[in-house]
Write a structure and sequence with these properties.
By secondary structure, this protein is mainly alpha-helical. The chain contains 16 helices and two strands. Helix 12 runs parallel beside helix 13.
């Protein structure tokens, strides 16, 4: 194994003050070890890393911890590394799904300026709260979330804002994978682009990105991939109406979920059909799970609710920060 690649990763990891950050299990000083393990050949370390990435560096509902943004930056830098699991190409796909999830966590909509103003105003208090939290034991930490100051919630808003500020970099590093030779990687990249390009800085890019996503959709090799890509297209305001009459119920359903189709008669009929027989949606993908977006809120809730009709509160949720 070449050491140069690992040294570069270590240098980037060392640029982060991990001991000043926390995740679901407390102090984030264990995160660098898990990230470095991605370029090793220890299978057990890989398992630990995967669990750490998904269950520890993101909150249970898919939102950000303070550790999320720096972790996402390292993850996206590792995507190009030849030492990244050369015998298991699915690992890079999983990392693109993580980037998708960070994009969802970063989708602050019009809340970003207000959060930024409040964070800047209370930065010393947030630092003090975080320092106390990192030094506390488990029982004290639990109480700190309920201390009545609201600082804990604002620390988490600050973490989401850090992800928001990172989105332009994540998007730039993700777009090239839309042209990957691997169909699954193109699909995962499309999902990530669909969440990241909702960022205000990507407004001028969206027409070109939508053209690219349409091309990826045209080249999709399965109903599962096509449905995943259609959700991404819908996220960015693209036209998914051509797929409302697709023979596959899952493809029709994902096309109908585009926020811009709220009130469209054909989309409404598609979702009403799925609401009457939600099992058909899952069965339409054969032995595969529903599109990756349904692993996260708000689509996870939509699937659990059995597809509410167009115009209901559930219908307006996809594509928006919940």
């Amino acid at each position: 194994m070449c050491c140069d690649s690992i040294l570069v990763v270590v240098d980037h990891i060392d640029d982060v003050e991990w001991s000043a950050l926390f995740h679901a299990e407390g102090l984030a000083d264990d995160t660098p070890r898990h990230l470095t393990a991605l370029l090793g050949d220890d299978a057990w370390a890989f398992v630990d890393w995967y669990s750490h990435l998904w269950s520890t560096t993101l909150r249970r509902e898919g939102r950000a911890w303070p550790v999320t943004a720096p972790t996402a930056l390292i993850v996206v830098e590792l995507l190009d590394d030849p030492l990244l699991a050369p015998k298991d190409p699915s690992l890079a796909d999983a990392m693109l799904v993580y980037v998708y999830a960070v994009g969802v966590a970063a989708d602050l909509g019009d809340r970003a300026p207000d959060i930024r103003a409040l964070v800047e105003k209370r930065t010393p208090e947030l630092r003090s709260w975080t320092d106390a939290y990192l030094a506390a034991d488990t029982d004290v930490r639990v109480r700190m979330w309920q201390d009545g100051t609201g600082l804990g919630a604002l620390v988490l808003d600050q973490a989401a804002l850090a992800c928001f500020d990172l989105v332009p970099t994540l998007l730039q590093r993700t777009v090239p994978y839309l042209a990957s030779q691997r169909a699954r990687r193109r699909t995962c990249a499309a999902a990530a682009v669909g969440s990241l390009a909702r960022h205000p800085s990507a407004l001028a890019q969206r027409p070109v990105l939508l053209e690219q996503l349409m091309a990826v959709a045209d080249a999709a090799q399965s109903a599962h991939d096509l449905a995943t890509i259609l959700i991404a297209i819908g996220h960015l305001g693209g036209d998914t109406r051509p797929w409302l009459t697709d023979p596959n119920a899952g493809v029709r359903g994902c096309a109908a979920l585009a926020p811009d189709l709220a009130g469209d008669d054909t989309a409404e009929r598609v979702l009403l059909e799925l609401a009457r027989s939600p099992r058909e949606f899952g069965e339409s993908f054969g032995d595969m799970a529903p599109p990756l977006q349904f692993q996260f809120k708000p689509y996870q809730d939509l699937l659990a609710s059995g597809f509410r009709p167009v115009g209901s509160p559930g219908r307006s949720t996809p594509g928006a920060q919940c």
